[in-house]
Amino acid sequence: MQTTDGCPDAISVAAKRTAHMVLAAAVLMLNVFAAARSASADDAALDLRNAVAYALDHSGDIANRRASLANDEAIYAKDHALEYPPVTGLLQNTLTKQSNVSAGSLSQYGIVPVAPITTFSENTAQIGTQWTAYNGSYNQIVAQRAHRQVETDRDDLRRAQQRLAQDVTTAYFAVSVRREAVQLDAADKAYQEALLDAARNEERVGRAAGVDVLRSQVNALRAQAALTTAQSDEVTARESLAAAIGAPPDQAFAFDDVLPEPVLPVTPLAQLVSAAEASRSDIAGAVAAVANARLTDSSIDTDRFPVLQVNAAFGNQFSPTQINATTSLFTGLPLPAFPRGSPGFWSIGATETLQIGFVEYGSRHAQHRAAHFAIESAQRTLDTTRYSVETDVRQALRGAQTAAANLATAKEASALGTESARIAQLQYKNGLISLSDATQAERDNLSAQNDLVNARVNYIDAVVRLRVSVGTSDPLAIVDFRGA
Which residues contact residue 28 at a Cβ distance below 8 angstroms, ignoring those fewer than 6 apart? Predict the structure, then answer.
């Protein structure tokens, strides 16, 4: 027996068997994906905001930058402390013992101890300071340079956090695109199966050739394969997102059924550029580099200024072995009695030193020349950075505006594509159009729906990039779409 177009029934049977095998394989893969997801059911699902927060807490790069910031803050604290006098306490005990020691150098004067002093001890308690009050402002310059380095580290950390938030957002909505693709491919599979049922019905009444059934079966199998691939791609995208935030591969995530549409900023370009120049960490880092270069130049001549050192102390000394007798231990040299103990002592002093090098063989001039070139280089970098920031803001705003316009167009095209595919399916069931026309209408609809999903994600990415370009300080605020 043959079909109306002359094809044997064996072909149709073989095609059906192939379809059943593909469907069985697809069901098996779906079970595998479901098992993989159920393994992470116990983990808390992360939305975009929590995913960014998780990434900020688990990123190795962010951790390294925080460690560098903490180290430079410690260096700054140490250098800044040199600008103020230190206060130190001293507790000291001195104890010496000796035996069979000669008179030493005093013997040449005929002074010989009657009885050798075999034990000596002294206790000292003191509070004092020793401070370089002025050394050509070198201490102040070093402290300022350390402070500038701390500011640079903070700016670098903030910039890295912003980039990480942007990268996580891209990875997060990449999963959303895959999820939408799964839904669209599932709808396409249902559409192709409906066309297959219609082709079989048309074949029975003799209004369609058997080849339409075969073509419908091919289209249905293709739709099933596309759905299976989309499901696999979704799982892969989830694992990539987990890797991006430093989480285990089976980390669960929460996604909205409808992608957000944040409001497009209406702030004028000039205000956005001004805000970026005041907030961008790369500009702040370039400004700090210029300041550091100037401080380096200033530190070269600090040795030409006088150095003023101040010291002061007060305390008490007591010697348990102190001599307390009316007669001297030394023959031929009467000594007064020494009172045991002391009411206390204090001391204060200052030393000022000025050292001038008369012949330096051009070394200082060479240092200044190198420092001036460094200042010029840092200033050029600052100017270039400002121009780059302005360009970045301009392009980000233009990209967001373009993405918003494309999103509006994609919405209209999606609505028209959905309606066109629905009408084409009805027309084919009633024998008004061919299978090719109905299939083409569905392909156009699927393409329009994919374009809409991509347009939504592109718009979100454009808004996030605009927020980053303006210099939004809080990385979590970059991905806050509430009220959108």
Answer: none
* Among candidate residues 394, 483, 446, 452, the one with its CA nearest the CA of residue 219: 446
How far apart CA 307 and CA 249 sit, in angstroms, is 62
Q: What is the rounded distance in angstroms from the CA atom of residue 168 to the CA atom of residue 447?
A: 27
Residue 467 in contact with residue 243, Cβ under 8 Å?
A: no
R_g of the chain, CA atoms, integer Å: 42
Mean per-residue pLDDT, 455-465: 93
Residue 390 sits at φ, ψ, to 5 deg, of -60, -40
What pLDDT, on the 0 to 100 scale, is given for residue 342?
Answer: 64
User: Which pLDDT band, with edges at 50, 70 and 90, does 328 fall under?
Assistant: very low
Cβ–Cβ under 8 Å, residues 310 and 133: yes
Q: 280-309 pLDDT, tens per residue?
A: 888 988 898 899 899 989 888 888 888 899
Query: How many angstroms separate the Cα of 484 from the Cα of each of 259, 263, 293, 462?
Result: 10, 6, 45, 14
Q: Which two tokens stand for residue 218?
A: 């091919």
In the sheet with 345-353, reading across from the earlier edge strand, the strands are: 88-97, 119-135, 307-318, 345-353
The CA dihedral of 105, 109, 111, 116, to the nearest 10 degrees, is 10
Among the listed residues 211, 242, 181, 221, the one whose alpha carbon sits nearest the alpha carbon of residue 22 = 221
Say if CB 102 and CB 116 are below 8 A apart: no
Q: How far is CA 338 from the centre of its chain?
A: 71
- Supply 421's token pair: 């595919």
Contact 476, 52 (CB under 8 A): yes
The secondary element (H helix, E strand) that includes residue 135 is: strand 119-135
Per-residue model confidence as pLDDT tens digits over 351-369: 989 888 888 888 989 999 9
Q: What distance in Å separates the CA atoms of residue 45 and residue 80, rounded to the nearest whole number? A: 46
Of 483 and 275, the structure prediction assigns the larger pLDDT to 275
- This prediction has a pTM of 0.72
pLDDT in tens, 152-193: 899 899 999 999 999 999 999 999 999 999 998 998 899 888
Q: Report which residue type is found at 68.
A: S
Rounded to whole angstroms, the Cα distance separating 469 from 484 reads: 20
Enter the tokens of residue 199: 């082709």
CA distances from 70 to 76, 157, 288 (A): 10, 11, 18
Q: Which structure tokens are listed for 205? A: 């009444």
pLDDT at residue number 67: 95
**Do the beta carbons of residue 124 and residue 311 sit within 8 Å?**
no
End-to-end CA distance of the chain: 63
% helix / strand / coil in the chain, to the nearest 5? 65, 10, 25
